[in-house]
Each structure stands twice: as structure tokens, then as C-alpha cells.
Amino acid sequence: MTDFEAWAEARVAGLLRFAYLVTGSQHAAEDAVQAALTRACEKWTRVSRADDPDTYVRRMVVNEHVSSWRRSGRREVAVAEVRDTAVDATAGVDTSDAVWRMCSALPRQQRAAVVLRFYEDLEYAEIAALLDCSETTVRSHVHRALTSLRATLTSQEER
Q1: Which of 12, 23, 43, 100 has its CB surrounded by the most CB atoms within 10 Å?
Q2: Per-residue confidence at 83, pLDDT binned at 50, 70, 90?
Q3: Residues sharing a CB contact under 8 Å with residue 140, sequence separation 6 or more, in sequence order
Q4: CA gyration radius for the chain?
């Protein structure tokens, strides 16, 4: 087994979880990871020499998602079911699902920053490098996302 195959086999599950949190869709996550791993395999000599190949490939996943989003021109979010009447969205939903639903409503940059900060436990400087923006911008994304999530929670509690 080559170095790349062993590395990819050990990390594919984690990459899929990460990609799902970034993309919000299992299908999009699988596509992003497949494209990133294909590119990583082609450039494995370069990738393996990086300070942190895991971070390098996670960045490739994020880039692939952003590129596919730009290519498609689609700005819509798929929903499982369209309902005619208002329904309490929190009824019968476990905590993790409720958190994911709130996070999926965030703009993609804010969602990516929150996922990288709180799920991947990365520092702001690392997130800035992954998202190719300044550390101040990352802090702003996280702050705005948390403000939005607090407002959503407050409005749900008031219902």
C-alpha cells in the first residue's frame, strides 16, 4: 500500500465529517472529499511535505466546495420536506440535529469559520490560513455567527 493510500484510508471518515459540516449535504461532502483526495493523490509528493498534510487537504476540501458552489451558480438550499402549515421545528428534534439546522442557516463563510473553530478546534490563525482571509475576518465571521445563533435561540425560546 502506498503512503497516500494509507494516509487517505486513515483519514477519509474524518474528512467526510468535516466536509459534511462545511457543505451541509452528504452528497456535496462526498463530492468535495473525492475531488480533494484525487488532487491530493496527484500532488502527494508536495502535500506530504507540507507542515500538516491534514490541514492542507482540509483546505482542499473547502476550496473544492467553494469552487463547486461558484460553478453551479446555485444559491438555494434543499429541504427534505415542504410543509403547508407552520410546524414547531424543535419538536422531536434532538439537540445535535437542532444545532446543525441552526448552523446550516448561517452564510457559508460564517458556518465554515464556526465549524473550524468549534468542531475542529482550530485557532483563528489556522482558520484564516484555511479560508484564505485575515484573522480579523475570521473573528468577525465567528462573532456574527454566534450573534445570529443566539438570536435564533432567543426567538425560539420566546415562542
Answers
A1: 23
A2: low
A3: none
A4: 17
